[in-house]
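Reminder to self: tokens first, then the designed residues, so the page reads top to bottom the way the pipeline ran.
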């Protein structure tokens, strides 16, 4: 770390010198301009303003690349913040192109801008300021909540179409989660805050941590929806009413945990954690009731549903713990 002495010039302007080694490394010369951006924590972010924006490009040779490997490579390049991903081979197979299109759909802002038999170019067209992290997390919660409600309803009515719709909505939550992860990594690598006027880097880290359990809640909603094809007949009304009641109670706790995070409310966050602990007896009693059902298939399916609901409760506790960690700074 280097230090610089603050000097005064013109009677009202404070100046410091820039490290020569850094200036040469980033291409700064006499007369060039740099951008200075104030951060919420009081720091200044200095970026060189060069002619034309530098486009970060990643080239990937997909010759002999397996489908799952190709998926992981594209997602990894996206998370690393590459503006342009060039996939090439002497001939890109049709199955590989289908995979590329499918992965692009799961990545917010990524579009195929060029395509030929030997090359596919993916361009990132998203401006990070268009979706601040708080809005992204809020959107994840709203989608996950609607998925969970509809998943249990689909189980109650054995509605295969609704169950399929729930499964498809999970892709949207995954897209938001990947975008938040990408933005956070960009900040760690010195890319600056997309929404720095209202969120500092510590808060960004905490919202990124809260996004993970929300993504897993959506996964559990999808898991519950996948139970529907295994149900041959509608489940006993009394049993489903109790499962619905348990689901409503857990989703209310998820809502409260997100509110505690946004409002830095440690009291509410602690209430969520205590409530989750107190509901374990209810879950055990419901499991015992399911074991009394005559159909083994229904018994296994509903047991899986209740287990997913219990895990959602644990995930709401995780969000509440993040809220407490976040709020401690303001106490």
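Designed residues (331 positions):
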């Amino acid at each position: 770390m280097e230090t610089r002495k603050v000097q005064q010039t013109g009677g009202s302007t404070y100046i410091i010198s820039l490290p020569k080694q850094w200036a040469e490394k980033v291409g700064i010369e006499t007369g060039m301009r740099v951008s200075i951006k104030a951060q919420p924590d009081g720091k200044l972010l200095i970026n060189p303003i060069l002619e034309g924006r530098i486009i970060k490009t990643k080239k990937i040779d997909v010759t002999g690349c397996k489908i799952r490997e190709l998926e992981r490579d594209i997602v990894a390049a996206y998370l690393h913040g590459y503006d342009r991903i060039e996939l090439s081979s002497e001939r890109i197979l049709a199955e590989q192109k289908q995979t590329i299109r499918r992965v692009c759909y799961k990545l917010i802002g990524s579009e195929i801008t060029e395509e030929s038999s030997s090359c596919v170019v993916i361009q990132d067209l998203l401006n990070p300021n268009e979706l601040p992290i708080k809005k992204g997390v809020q959107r994840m919660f709203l989608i996950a909540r609607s998925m969970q409600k509809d998943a249990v309803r689909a189980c109650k009515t054995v509605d295969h179409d609704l169950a399929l719709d729930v499964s498809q909505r999970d892709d949207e939550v995954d897209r938001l989660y990947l975008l938040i992860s990408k933005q956070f990594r960009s900040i760690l690598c010195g890319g600056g805050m997309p929404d720095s006027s209202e969120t500092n880097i510590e808060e960004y880290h905490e919202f990124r941590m809260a996004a993970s359990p929300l993504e897993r809640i959506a996964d559990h909603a999808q898991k519950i929806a996948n139970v529907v094809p295994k149900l041959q007949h509608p489940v006993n009304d009394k049993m489903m009413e109790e499962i619905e009641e348990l689901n409503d109670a857990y989703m209310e706790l998820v809502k409260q945990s997100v509110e505690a995070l946004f409002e830095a409310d440690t009291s509410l966050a602690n209430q969520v954690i205590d409530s989750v602990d107190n509901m374990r007896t209810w879950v055990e009693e419901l499991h015992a009731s399911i074991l009394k059902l005559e159909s083994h298939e229904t018994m296994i399916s509903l047991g899986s549903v209740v287990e997913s609901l219990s895990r959602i409760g644990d995930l709401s506790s995780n969000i509440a713990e993040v809220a407490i960690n976040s709020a401690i700074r303001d106490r």
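The chain has a mean pLDDT of 88.
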